[in-house]
Design brief:
This protein has about 250 residues and is α/β, with parallel strands linked by helices. Helix content is about 15%, strand content about 25%. Strand 10, helix 4 and strand 11 form a beta-alpha-beta unit. Bound molecules: zinc ion (2 copies).
């Protein structure tokens, strides 16, 4: 499978990146993680003859603002959209007039909106486990079993037990790094590179890519690289994410 980071900024778009989106292209299907403005970049990459799953971590705008471009993407098959438990109403209220077109008009007929409590008998072609993670609004992390590999998505969150559980033994963890080194105190809504690296060690993961760099804090690409570098003494397989980066698993 190919994992492509399409938007690696938290909060807002800058010249360094677009807001949050990651695409996983597997043999039989595609999975889109979050729908910041990076989602427009799925268009030339997705195989539209295969089903697509759109998994949303939470409703903050840097993860959902790209939903108003769903019709630009022109999906050819019904899309299954997943939101955290209790967030279907928020989704319906956001993706509708007068803000944008009704979501059902922007995706093919038969597309479905599910929440994370409705996944048990969903019949998805991959394993999916979700748990709430630490953020000021309802937010879920995802652990996906795809083609014999495990990919975990943790955005947005501070360090928490559920994040470690979801990441346990994963082949790849896509982890948020919203905060600058040395700025995270106590029970925080975001992580910094060293905290991410410690989580990776504790969970015994193979590799971790950092994403969701806070746009107001990480103002240059140099700042991303410099921040992540010292954390590699804790966990060497720590990758600094940038838009359009591909990771082959
Ligand atoms: Zn965010
Ligand atoms: Zn958030």
């Amino acid at each position: 499978m190919i994992v492509t980071l399409l938007g690696t900024n938290g909060w807002f778009d800058t010249e360094n990146g677009q807001t949050m989106c990651t695409l996983i292209c597997a043999q039989e299907y595609s999975i889109i993680l979050d729908a910041g403005y990076g989602i427009r970049r799925v268009k030339p990459l997705i195989d539209f003859s295969k089903p697509t799953f759109l998994l949303l971590s939470h409703m903050h705008l840097d993860h959902t603002i790209g939903l108003h471009t769903l019709d630009y993407i022109q999906f050819q098959q019904p899309v299954k959209i997943v939101v955290p438990a209790g967030q279907k109403q928020a989704f319906e209220e956001l993706v509708r007039p007068p803000y944008t077109n009704p979501w059902k008009k922007m995706v093919p007929e038969g597309s479905e909106l599910l929440d994370t409590d409705e996944l048990t008998d969903s019949g998805f072609p991959f394993e999916i486990t979700t748990l709430p993670i630490q953020h000021p609004v309802p937010t879920h992390g995802y652990r996906l079993g795809i083609e014999g590999k495990t990919v975990t998505y943790l955005s947005d969150t501070g360090y928490c037990e559920n994040a470690v559980t979801l990441a346990s033994g994963a082949d790849l963890v896509i982890a948020e790094c919203g905060a600058l080194p040395g700025t995270v105190k106590g029970k925080a809504p975001h992580m910094e590179p060293e905290i991410c690296a410690r989580l990776a060690v504790e969970a015994g993961v193979r590799q971790m890519v950092l994403t969701h760099f806070g746009a107001g804090s990480y103002t240059t690409m140099e700042a991303r690289k410099n921040a992540a570098s010292p954390a590699r003494s804790i966990f060497p397989n720590l990758i600094t994410g940038v838009d359009n980066m591909e990771i082959v698993l």
